[in-house]
Amino acid sequence: xxxxxxxxxxxxxxxxxxxxxxxxxxxxxxxxxxxxxxxxxxxxxxxxxxxxxxxxxxxxxxxxxxxxxxxxxxxxxxxxxxxxxxxxxxxxxxxxxxxxxxxxxxxxxxxxxxxxxxxxxxxxxxxxxxxxxxxxxxxxxxxxxxxxxxxxxxxxxxxxxxxxxxxxxxxxxxxxxxxxxxxxxxxxxxxxxxxxxxxxxxxxxxxxxxxxxxxxxxxxxxxxxxxxxxxxxxxxxxxxxxxxxxxxxxxxxxxxxxxxxxxxxxxxxxxxxxxxxxxx
Amino acid sequence: xxxxxxxxxxxxxxxxxxxxxxxxxxxxxxxxxxxxxxxxxxxxxxxxxxxxxxxxxxxxxxxxxxxxxxxxxxxxxxxxxxxxxxxxxxxxxxxxxxxxxxxxxxxxxxxxxxxxxxxxxxxxxxxxxxxxxxxxxxxxxxxxxxxxxxxxxxxxxxxxxxxxxxxxxxxxxxxxxxxxxxxxxxxxxxxxxxxxxxxxxxxxxxxxxxxxxxxxxxxxxxxxxxxxxxxxxxxxxxxxxxxxxxxxxxxxxxx
Lengths: 280, 255
What we know:
The complex is a heterodimer of chains A (280) and B (255). Chain A is of the alpha+beta class. Helix content of chain A is 52%, strand content 12%. In chain A, β4 (75-81) and β5 (84-87) form a beta hairpin. Chain A is globular, with a radius of gyration of 23 Å. Chain A starts with a helix and ends in an 8-residue tail after the last strand. Chain B is α+β, with helices and mostly antiparallel strands and 255 residues long. Chain B has a single domain, classed as Sulfite Oxidase, Chain A, domain 2 (Alpha-Beta Complex), CATH 3.90.420. Chain B is 29% helix and 24% strand. Chain B has a 5-stranded mixed beta sheet. In chain B, strands 3, 4, 7, 8 and 9 form a 5-stranded antiparallel beta sheet that branches. In chain B, a hairpin with a 5-residue loop joins β1 (98-102) and β2. Chain B is elongated. Chain B starts with a helix and ends in a 25-residue tail after the last strand. Classes of the chains: A alpha+beta (280), B alpha+beta (255). Chains A and B meet through α2, α3, α8 and α9 of A and α1, α2, α3 and β4 of B.
C-alpha cells in the first residue's frame, strides 16, 4: 500500500464527486438515519404489519413483535412472521431498558430515536427529517438532470450491459477496478444507484404519504392502489429495510475498496485512482 | 507509522464512541424545549400544505359496507370513571345534555333527541390511529355544521373545543380536543351517536363522539359533554389545543 501511495502523486487525485453531490450525500445520510430510527420508534407504538385497508379485517398480521411474561416474570420477546413464531428476547419484543432490566418493546432502545418510548417526539423527528430528506432529494434530482450527472455517470452504457457477468464475478472475488475504469461506476453500482435513487427512495416517500389521512383525502382512494393504508405502512417498513440493506452493502464496499480513499472522495471530492494491476 | 495512518486509526477507534455520543445527544435534544420548537417547524409545514391544497373541500375516502372491520377497536378510555358519567350511562343517557357555548350568539343545551333531530350524515370511513393501526366503521351523526348554524358562532370564533367526560389517568386532566373552522364546517365532520347501525358503544365514546375524518384518531374526542367556540387555545388545558397536544403531540394531525 505504501508503495502505491508513493507511486501515485498528488496530481493523480481527481475530483470524483462535485461539491453539491457531497453536501447532498451527507445531508441524506443524516436524514436517512433519523428517519429510520424515529420510524422504528413509531413502529413500536403498534408493532404489527398488516396487508389491506384496515388492521382489523379478520386476517392475522404479516409480522408481529410482542412479549409474553414467563413463569419467572421475565418478558420473553417473540417475533411472529407469516405465522411462524420466533423467540427474540434481548433484541425484538423485549430488550434492556435504561434501568437494566428487560422491558417490553418491539425494537430496542439503541435502534430507536428517541431511545425511551416516546411516540410524539419520534413523530416530530420523523416529519422534520422527512422535509429535509424530500427537499434535499428534489434538489438532487434537479441537479442530477440539469448538470447531466445522471446521464453521464449513472445511466448504463452499452459496454456496461456487456460487462454485467464479469462485474458480478469481480465483485464476488473482491477484485476492484483500477486505473481508468475506477473513474466510473461499474454496472452493478449503476444498477444499485438507479434502483435506490429512482425506485426505492421515491417509493418510500409515497408510502409515507399513503399513511396520511389528509393526503388520502386529496384523491380519495388513491392509497388503495398500493393495497390500502395498512399495505402502504407495511411497504414503508419493508422499503426502509431494503434501503438499510443497501446502506449495509454500500458501506461494506466502501470499506473493502479503500475506506479512506472513498471517504475522502465524498468529503473533499478527491479520489486517488488505484494503479492498474499490470503496472505493479 | 505516519501521522495519516495514526489519525485514521484514532478515527476508527473513536467511531463507536462517536455514535454513542450522537445517540445520547439526540435524546438530550429531544428533551430540550428549544429543539422541540425547531422540530415543530415540520408540523407548521404540514399544516401549510393542508391550507394550501384545500380547505373544506377534499373528502375522506368512504368505503362499501363490505369493508367494515368485524369489530371496531376501543382505544384510550374504554369507560369514563366519574360518578356523573356512570349515572348518565345508567339510564341510557336520557339525562345527557350537550352544552354549546363560548363565542356564539345562541348558547345551546341539547338532549340526545335534539341532536338526532339535526341534519345527519352516515359514512363508512377508515379510522387511523396515531399508533399506526386502522379500522373501518360506519358512523351516523349530526353534522357539526348544522349545530353551529343553530348556535351562530361570532365572527371572532377560530376554533371549536370539545370537552369530554373522561380522563386517561385516574384523577388526571379531562380529555379535550380542538379543531379549526375549516374542519368544523367540513361535510364529514359529525357528532356521531351511532356506530355500525347501533347506538354508539361506551367503548367508542357514548353518547357522542367527534368524527374529523381527515385527521388521526386522537382528534376525534369521545364522550363529548361540552362544545366551546373560542378565538384562541391559550388558557385551555396547557394551551396546546388538546389532551395529547399538551403532551407534545401535533395539533394538526392530518399526517
